[in-house]
């Protein structure tokens, strides 16, 4: 799988792992189609990957991805935006992988980042 993680996304993930108190935790990233122009992103922290979860390493970070997320994230850039009006992951994919309306995701609203 070929995926780029921006320094901003990496910084956010490192902060989440550090705040968990378990520096060996992995970051579970789940991506699905959402809305007209983008992807919906869910995340959590886990000590070990669940069954049927793929493992992707970026530097010393461990990312756990399911097979659908791997397909959607292949050849993409994962970024993280944290502004006064919006906070969330932004996934940019090549135009050839565009779904429905646009090759660029919408930003994920803050309430989508809250664990339910």
Summarize the helices and strands and which ones pair or pack.
Blueprint: E1 3-5, H1 7-20, E2 26-34, E3 38-46, E4 54-58, E5 61-65, H2 67-73, E6 76-82, E7 87-92
Parallel strand pairs: 1-6, 2-5
Antiparallel strand pairs: 2-3, 4-5, 6-7
Task: Briefly characterize the structure.
This protein has 116 residues and is of the alpha/beta class. The chain is 18% helix and 38% strand. Strand 6 (76-82) and strand 7 (87-92) form a beta hairpin.
Describe this structure in words.
The chain has a single domain (3-110), classed as HesB-like domain (Hypothetical Protein Aq_1857, Chain: A, Sandwich). The radius of gyration is 14 Å and the shape is globular. By secondary structure, the chain is α/β, with parallel strands linked by helices. The strands form 2 sheets. Strands 3-2-5-4 form a 4-stranded mixed sheet. It has a 3-stranded mixed sheet with strand order 1-6-7. 18% of the residues lie in helices and 38% in strands. Residues 96-107 have low confidence and may be disordered.
């Amino acid at each position: 799988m070929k995926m780029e993680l921006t320094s901003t996304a990496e910084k956010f993930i490192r902060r989440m792992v550090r705040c968990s108190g378990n520096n060996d935790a992995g970051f579970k990233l789940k991506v699905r189609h959402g809305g007209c122009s983008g992807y919906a992103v869910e995340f959590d922290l886990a000590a070990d990957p669940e069954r049927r979860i793929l493992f992707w390493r970026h530097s010393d970070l461990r990312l756990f991805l399911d097979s659908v997320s791997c397909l959607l994230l292949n050849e993409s850039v994962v970024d993280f935006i944290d502004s006064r009006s919006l906070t969330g992951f932004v996934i940019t994919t090549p135009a050839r992988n565009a779904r429905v309306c646009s090759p660029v995701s919408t930003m994920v609203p803050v309430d989508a980042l809250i664990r339910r």
